[in-house]
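Assess this one:

_____
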Amino acid sequence: MKRRTFLTGATVGMAAFASGVLPALGDERPTTGETNSAKAQPGVGRPVRIVSIGFRGGDMSLEQIAKHVDDEGSQGADVILLPETCRGQDATSEEPLHGPTVTTMAALAAKHKTYIAVPIDQRDGSKRLNTVVMLDRSGQIVCTYDKLFPYWSEYMVHPPVSPGDAAEVYQADFGRVGFATCYDANFPEVWRRLSEQGAEVVLWPSAYSAGRSLQAHAINHHYYIVTSSWTPDCIAYDITGERILYESTKGVNVSRATLDLDRCIFHENFNLDKRDKLLSEHSQDVEQESWMKLEQWFVLKAKRPGVSARALAGQYGLEELRHYLERSRVAIDDRRGWEFTAKVAFPEKTIGELQAFASKEKG
């Protein structure tokens, strides 16, 4: 893991991140609706409108799926997310990357100028893969993610599903998008790798809901998480870890959420004087949206169009929370002379062996 590369980008490039909630969970809702919190005001910050369409994979024809995507695309969306293997996973569901599902969705992405994340049961040569295909606003394939941790039943289909080998983050025109699928929720290393690559929102298609498992990743890594499931339902988690949306309906669940990717979260350590100066000198531009006393965290957001809270925070030297924690991890490991995460990964290694490895990495 190139932790020092991440650290350099975190401390030197915070302002560049700016190139770039929300109500608490209520009861299950029988109808779909728009979640547009005060934290994601139209035109303020960096809003992204995400539509999640949930249904049981294999229950709808491609034409029916396309009708739902077409309807939502016509209302305006930055991203439309479909559930895991949206056309099912059985003896007849395999298709190539440029097969009928992706081809159909690509035409709709181009028609509505929206990104579409479409999960398919992919046949790639001799491999079967559980793949999320990201289409851009012109309908081009710009990223694919192969599920890193397939569920046990996926080894029982013929041919069995092969595990992927990389966590993927894509730089969209609105921000950095990460991907994880279903059973991946149980493996923290997937979510940490997405954080290391700067994910601002993670899209999670699935066969089940996961709930608190996802909340833990949002709390630990401070990115949004939005889901689409077979259940069908949609959950969204804020950068604070708060669950900000939950909707579930029978048959097909359509949920819409507008999230501000410019909102940023900080630990109070080494930041309070800088924060106070920023808020004093830019009171019309930026505000402290929330103060989390127990965690000693605070969230900043822009107050008017054309302002980036993240860019201004970077100019005043504030260090975002996940960057601060990674810098702390690196500094503490430097003091001990070896990386603690290496000891976790290779418990049989002696301290001397870990120190020698760390020295080699530095060299």
